[in-house]
Every structure is written in structure tokens, then in C-alpha cells.
């Protein structure tokens, strides 16, 4: 059987390696454009073209669909990074273009490089993060901005194109066009077209100022002007293709023909009147003709030259609002052990929404804005010098919970309170538009902006900056845009929220939520059993209490693993903790498996990295107190004394006590220090020269810098910060991740950073805690799986109607 097993393993590994790609990211850098010929509809390009993909893909299937002839495509490089691949080519040749001339000479022409890939091969996505345009082309006589505008389309050929596998069926292809818009300089248009025409018309009108009897001079001027118009039009038309419609230039020539011909006719009629003895009539005719011909020239010309009204691109349809379940009860009562701040309260997810809202299933919806930012959307503008401009447009009729309108100033305030070092400029051209310009093309540009009530918090920000605004939001009920608003609040006592009457979505299922703070888990569990509360916030009950309650009321208790990461943050400025061998020894000294079993049971898991899905991908450091003691002695850290700070909850106390006992067994004097709010110490990086027991949740959206003990500046990780764990090597990888605009590539780089986390130990990973939820069995809508945070989607929680008792069977 062993050879068969080996063969199966080999075949499965080959199958994994040969997994076809789902997306192909393609981009280009346009070096030059030459020989733009509108008459033939072609232009020559010189560009670098590349493709990036994950898995298996034949790069020859990516074609230039608007090639006008032979294209030189020379391979420049091919790279492989894990299961990611890339290829780059230098492309030179002639491309076809469509050059509509209806508005010539005020036309704007689009030069497009269009790439095509069969739809059954992969999705084709523009790699605008790296694409660019040279600042100067060899095309003369045109103005342009070095900006690519992407266009993604799907084309269906009513043919199988000779395919055997798709025989008799239409062929669908994905297309991506990189477009650059050219415009004619207005000064050049005025000098080359309108100035000569203006002189011709002026000369034709000047003939009307001569006496009527000078018919030879007047008629000669008129005929010359008319012939000049004909000659000039033939000259202009010689450089343009034959089209089946009139251009603005054609309209201007028609006006010129009409004016010069009318002036010639007026001269003849005036001569006839003067010759027949009606000189006064001839003079009046010339007078009125001069005025009328001037008006008949200027007015049509102005109408022809009026700018074309820009039609904004159609907005993508907003996702359909979720259907709320009707709730059998109007009030939900929640128990919690932590009610110190509004922003960290159980109600936070129902109060504080951003411009882009993330649903419990991870789907992002444009809650306040008209669309999401994506690399292929009109809201992003990739400038040739590497800058990125993102435009956010607010939807109409949005109100805060107190009735104030939501404006772009509310979006801009959040940017100014927590300034981003990558942002060059934040502009609000009007009350509904925010424009953010980044110096680099970074992934965070795609994240929706936060929103703050500017009329209330702008003065607070001006006086105290980020910290003052943070504390104000923690301690004071402010207007919100979420589905609920605060109606009553006292820190560490109670919080009451009700449905927000100005919420722009459907109203929440439960109209009122009352949150009560309990001093101990025992009191909270007792209140639930007395039916005084309907829901215990996750982990309010200890594991032992949850198991005991589960035995009494099995339908009310849920115990499972979670993504809550428990770890020991460290003061890496402490000389001994700065040594990697010391950190490794401390982790080897902690019997994490025993702590997991004793505290969390089967629901807990030993952690090696911040994400649970990374458990199988990193090399674990096992429990080995003998090796830990030897490593500490070798590093000169024998007898090390460290304060171990922890929170006041029973679980924190139990975990800290067990960790301290393990450390003492290898000669480390761990001194337990209980603190009221570990979150404050962690945020300010105050570890007291030792350790801090802390817990946090991490997702793919969490910055990889979050667990490297980097200092915070106005709520952001300082980009220049380094420590003994976060070295230049890790920083360079984090910088690459920060610039990865595509989710697959970003996830790969995050996995590498988390792999370095397990090797460099910026913090000591302990456990993934269990999740213990106690809820009234009739309460529904709160469970969205382990990956979702309890409380997300609070507006969708509801009480189901009690089932009617089944009627007894009829008597025979």
C-alpha cells in the first residue's frame, strides 16, 4: 500500500501546483506614442507590458486585440515568487484606434491599448497600481495628462472561433483597455482655423462699407472671399478621414459660405438699387446687412463652439438593503463586564459606522458614498508620476442622528484628526465630495473614509488633536450615522440605545437595547437565569460557569473556538527582552497546552501566529522548560525579574497566574500586577519594563504591523519605527504588503509577515480563546460564525415568535 499512497500524494501535489489561475493582473507602462494618423485610424506605441498571476496560466493567451499589424513582443523578464508568477514584455508596433471627429477641432481623442483573454481562462484585471504613462510623448500638436483610465468589458463573439472544446458555442472574452485622452490646444486651433476664417469673413463684410456703385471692387472681394473659403476647407479636409457626418469645422465653413455669399448678393442688389436711382435704399440695405450678417455669423458660430455638456458616468446600483426580520419583542437586554467606554461597548457596532460599511459576512457596502473604491472604478485616478487620487461622493439626503446633514467636511475631519503620512492633499470641492491624493499607490487608499460630526468635534480637534477626539467619542454620546443612537449612558453602569430615526437604511429589528454592567460574572449569570437579561456578552461567563449553565440550560449556551488572540506584549526596550533567545526561552517555558486545557477546554487552541488559519503554516515552539532554562543562562538572563501586568477579569487572573507559575519554574521572577484597563497600557505601549497579558482579534483586514509592538502616532503606526523584532527586513515586507492593491497578493505577503512573526516573536503568542455566548433561545441573528465578531450586524438581531404548542391528535 505504501507505493500507492506515495503515488496518490504525488498526484495530489501536482494537482495543487497545476491549479489554474482565477485572475490575471495585467498592466503596462507607455513609453511613447508616435505617428498618430487620424485619417487611417492608427498610431504607433512603445510600451512595457506585464502580467501577474497565481497558479497555472499560459501567458501567450493574453493578446493585444487592437493590433493593426505585426507587433514586436520581446520577453524582458519572468519571475516566480511561491505560487505567484509574472512575465514582462517590451511591445512595439501599430495599434488601431477609433477617432470620432464630430467635434473637430474641439475633439478629444482616446488612445487605447486593449488586452484580451478568453473568459474561460481567467478574469482579466487591470494592474493600475503599477501602470503608468511617460510624461512626454513624441506626438505633437496635442495636450494630454499622463493618466490611465481603465475600461473593463466583456465581448461575446457569435462563433466558436475554431475551438473543439467550445464547438458550436459563442466565445466570451474579457477585455481591459488602458486609455489616454488627447486634446487639441485651443490656441493652436484658434491660430490655424478660426483666425484665417475670421479674416476671410471680415474682408467679406468690409465690402459692404464701400459705395454701392463700386460693384467691381465689392464683387471682386466677395468672390475672392468665397473662393478662399473653398480652398481653405479643402486644405483642412485633406488631413482628415472621410466621415458621414458634419464636424464643427464643417459647420463653421457653412457659416462662412453663407456669410460671404450673402455679402456678395447684397453688393449686387445694392448696385441695382443705386443704378435705378434709389441710392437711399442701397445705403439702408448696406447698413442693415452689416448688422444682420455680423449677427448671423457670430450666433451660429457661438452655438457650434459651445462646450459639450459632460455626462457623468452612470453610478453603480446600490446593493439592495437587507430584509429585516420582524422581532417578537421590542427590547433586548444585554449583560457585560466591560462598559467603560462607548467605542468599546457592546453597542459600538450599532452606533459607529463608516462611509463604507462591512457586513458580518465580510462584504463591503457603500453606505454613505455612491460606490466602493476599486482599481478599475472611475473613483480612482492613477497619475503618471506615481500619485493616486481617490474621489468619494456622498449620497444625497444623508443625516446624522440629530438631523444635521452629512457633508464632506465630516469625512475630511477624520482625515485631519488622524493624518496619513502618505496623503499629499485632502480637498472638499463641494459639500458632497471628498478628494484624497496619495503620494504613492497604497492599499489603504481603497478603504472607505471614516466620518465624524465636524460641527462638534472640529473645535475639540483644534484644541487637543487626536487624543481629545478619541476621549470625547469614548465618554460623550455624540450624533452617529449607524442604525442606533444613544439615549442614556453612564460609564460602568448602563447604556441604552434606540433606533436612529435618520438612519439611511432599513430600521433595526429590535427598537431598543438596554446594556447593563455587572461587577462579576456570577451576578451576570444569575441575572440571566432570573430572566432579567436576554444575552450575556461573549466571555462574560467563565468557562466553568458556562459549562455548568450549559448542563442546566443546554439551548442557551454556545461554546466554541474563536479568533481572539491572547498574547504577552513585551517592552522590547528592556535589554534582556530585546534578545530573541530570551523571548524564545520565555515562550518555551510556558506550558500553553496545559493552560488551554485547564482554562478553555477543548474549545481553546494554542497560538503560534495572530491568525488561526496560520496554525498549520508556521513552525511551532514547543514547551521545553529544561531547554528554556539553559537558553536563559546562555543569554545571561538567569534570575530575570519581570512585572506581568494583567486585567481584572477572572480569566485574565487565571491565565496570568498560570503563566507566572511556568516562568518561575525556569528561574524568571514574574511579579503579577493587576491593572484596571489593560487596553490603555497597550495603546500607549506602557509595559513597565516587562510583560502585559492582552487579547485582540485579527482578520485579513488588520494591519500586519498591529502585533509588532510599534508606537502609535495619532492612531497610526509610525512608518519609520523599528525595534529588535521589527527589523528593516520585516519593514520592507510590510511596505510591500501596504502597496499590494490586490487581495490574493496581499494575503500572500501577510502570510509571510506572520511567518516572520512566529520566528522573531515581537510578542509571545499564547492561545486562541474559546468563545462563550449565553443567549435566550428565541434571540436570533447574532451568530455569523467564528470569523465574525459578535455584535456585527446588531441591527439584524431579533426575537423569534414562540412556537405554538402542537395540538393533540384527534380522538378516534
Question: What does this protein structure show overall?
Answer:
- The chain contains 17 helices and 33 strands.
- Residues 1-18 have low confidence and may be disordered.
- A hairpin with a 2-residue loop joins β4 (67-81) and β5 (84-96).
- Among the domains are: 19-184, Acetylcholine Binding Protein, Chain: A (Distorted Sandwich); 188-305, Neurotransmitter-gated ion-channel transmembrane domain (Methane Monooxygenase Hydroxylase, Chain G, domain 1, Up-down Bundle); 557-771, Roll (Dipeptide-binding Protein, domain 3).
- The strands form six sheets. Strands 12, 19, 20, 21, 22, 23, 24, 25, 26, 27 and 30 form an eleven-stranded mixed β-sheet that branches.
- The protein is α+β, with helices and mostly antiparallel strands and 812 residues long.
- The longest helix has 28 residues, at 248-275.
Condensed summary:
The protein has 812 residues and is of the alpha+beta class. 31% of the residues lie in helices and 27% in strands.
Question: What are the salient characteristics of this protein?
Answer:
Dipeptide-binding Protein, domain 3; single chain; Methane Monooxygenase Hydroxylase, Chain G, domain 1; nine-stranded antiparallel beta sheet; Acetylcholine Binding Protein, Chain: A; alpha+beta
